[in-house]
């Protein structure tokens, strides 16, 4: 579905992504792991056209997309759940969901059907549909951010640090949601610091350090790797 080939990204004169190549196939959960400052979020921004690439190629469904504008990339079927969830705190749950339908079909019946699908998936959102999003718990905000993204029926969902700032119980719930979305047919590129949880559910993974892919492989290969085990599993 998505293929990055030798992507290089600069901020000013500094190269922050160094010739990174990666791919995701239909139906996969692919994890990008790495510490703070490794370039994970920059990579996401590059995929969706928010941070331009200096060189390299980004293809989605065999089409070159790196020169498209962000809204054009979204229209192709790539949607992001951003770091921090990015909800509108002073708007209601339902108003937030409606923003996920902007710039696509104008059919209100379709929009209402998709809102109802969100409420069927997460009944708590339906029960509180008129509640301001900023008053929701962290877990409920994650449900809302995911539901807003799913309003577009994405072919590929990019999730940037979905567990950030959540309690262990809510982290477990969030990764359950990711698995459910994938099992329902959504391909997912998962950007995470929580390697233990991410590797438990992904198909394959890439480890990013200082803008470089230093290791990649299947879930089983990464879990078995001594360096990965020492860095991420030693205290688990």
Task: Assign a percent range to the helix content.
Answer: 25-40%
Instruction: Identify the strand order in the major beta sheet.
Output: 6-7-8-3-9-10
The computed structural class is alpha/beta
C-alpha Rg, in Å?
Answer: 18 Å
- Given the C-alpha coordinates, what overall shape results? globular
Q: Can you tell me about this structure?
A:
The protein has 236 residues and is an alpha/beta fold. Helices cover 39% and strands 26% of the residues. It has a six-stranded mixed beta sheet with strand order 6-7-8-3-9-10, sandwiched between helices. A four-stranded antiparallel beta sheet has the order 2-1-4-5, with helices on one face. The chain is globular.
Name some characteristics of this structure.
236 residues, 6-stranded mixed beta sheet, 10 strands, 4-stranded antiparallel beta sheet, globular, alpha/beta, 10 helices
């Amino acid at each position: 579905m998505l293929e990055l080939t030798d992507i290089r990204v600069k901020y000013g004169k500094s190269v922050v992504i160094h010739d990174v190549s990666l791919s995701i196939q239909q139906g996969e959960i692919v994890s990008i792991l790495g510490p703070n400052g490794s370039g994970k979020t920059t990579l996401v921004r590059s995929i969706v056209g928010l941070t331009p690439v200096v060189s390299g190629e980004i293809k989605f469904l065999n089409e070159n997309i790196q020169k498209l504008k962000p809204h054009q990339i979204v229209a192709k079927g790539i949607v992001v759940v951003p770091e921090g969830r990015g909800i509108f705190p002073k708007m209601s749950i339902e108003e937030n969901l409606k923003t996920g339908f902007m710039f696509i079909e104008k059919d209100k019946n379709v929009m209402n059907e998709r809102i109802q699908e969100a409420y069927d998936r997460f009944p708590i959102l339906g029960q509180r549909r008129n509640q301001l999003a900023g008053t929701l718990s962290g877990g409920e905000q994650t449900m809302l951010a995911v539901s807003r993204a799913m309003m577009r029926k994405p072919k590929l969902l990019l999730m940037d640090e979905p567990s950030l700032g959540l309690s262990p119980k809510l982290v477990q719930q969030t990764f359950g949601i990711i698995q459910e979305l994938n099992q329902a047919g959504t391909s997912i590129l998962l950007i995470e610091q929580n390697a233990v949880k991410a590797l438990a559910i992904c198909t394959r993974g890439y480890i990013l350090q200082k803008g470089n892919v230093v290791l990649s492989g299947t879930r089983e290969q990464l879990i078995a790797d001594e360096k990965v085990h020492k860095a991420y599993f030693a205290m688990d």
